[in-house]
Amino acid sequence: MAWLVTGGAGYIGAHVVRALQKADLAPVVIDDLSSGIAAFVPEGVPFVRANLLDRAAVGAALDEHDVAGVIHIAGFKYAGVSVTRPLHTYAQNVSAMVVLLEELAARGIDKVVFSSSAATYGTPDVDLVTEDTGLHPESPYGETKLIGEWLLRDAEVAHGLRHTSLRYFNVVGSGSTDLFDASPHNLFPLVFDMLYRGATPRINGEDYPTPDGTCVRDYIHVADLALAHVAAARRLAAGEPLERVYNLGSGDGHSVRQIMDTIREVTGIDFTPEVHERRPGDPARIVASGELAARDLDWRMRHDLREMVASAWAARQQAGDTYPR
């Protein structure tokens, strides 16, 4: 029996696939490579190149590989871009998920781990986000992730689906030097790329009510995140109870200034970030509690900030000039 990983050729998905392999849970990947990288799929892991909107391909993958459950990571993940491409975002994140859930229901496949997002919270007005914090998504991306959670809830009522959703903020680091984050919108790859080009990274605002004046965010290591997905899959497979939603948070967070200082220390590249004005809408602090996930999913921060930066930098260096732009 296999676990289908949608988006398994992406940065997060590829780490989940390798964690499943180590746990002997037989991963199968489906990915259209719109942002994924085929080389991220390990040799010997079945790979279906298809979009989830392709119903026939989804059904064939489920049948051919005797799928027992799904870890659903695929989606259009760029919150900012989703504002200008809302219909595309809804098609990839909602319509595609409907197809997936319909094909699962038709086959009696009743286990789903959903890669949701802390974007469902919008800009929370609390110091520490918990699963009970109000949901106020502020982008089509955040809205579609929340709708995805609703779809799972409704499929539970209608078809007996067993599921859980994992919400998280900023995923960084690398669990292997051949897996890197190539997102054009995430802080680590943005800063690394600027350093590679000889440009100077920037900080947007240093007058926030935080210890060093820069924004504080929740950063978690991608390998820790992958282990939480596997733990959730194991519990579903064993018939053990799970909450509908878990935050995968650090409970602490790091400031942008701390990130820059650590990058300078790890890379050995001496730079002083340019300080620009605040960006409209950037909250001073967003940090989540991971207590519930620690209780049920063995969630914990196994990597400190230096390890997050060092592993990400090592992967970026190995990619070298082959890094996609």
Automatic annotation (TrEMBL):
Q: Which cofactor does it need?
A: NAD(+)
Question: Which GO terms of type biological process are on file?
Answer: galactose catabolic process via UDP-galactose, Leloir pathway
- EC number(s) on file: 5.1.3.2
Q: Which Pfam families match?
A: Epimerase (PF01370)
What keyword terms does UniProt attach to this protein? Carbohydrate metabolism, Isomerase, NAD
Class of this enzyme: isomerase
Q: Is Isomerase among this UniProt entry's keywords?
A: yes
Q: Which domain of life is it from?
A: Bacteria
Q: Name one GO molecular function term.
A: UDP-glucose 4-epimerase activity
InterPro entries linked: Epimerase_deHydtase, NAD(P)-bd_dom_sf, UDP_G4E
Describe the reaction catalysed, as an equation. Answer: UDP-alpha-D-glucose = UDP-alpha-D-galactose
- Ranges for domain NAD-dependent epimerase/dehydratase come to 3-249
Q: In which pathway does it act?
A: Carbohydrate metabolism; galactose metabolism
Q: What is the similarity comment for this entry?
A: Belongs to the NAD(P)-dependent epimerase/dehydratase family.
NCBIfam families given for it?
galE
Q: What is this protein called?
A: UDP-glucose 4-epimerase
Question: Which species does the entry assign this protein to?
Answer: Nocardioides panaciterrulae
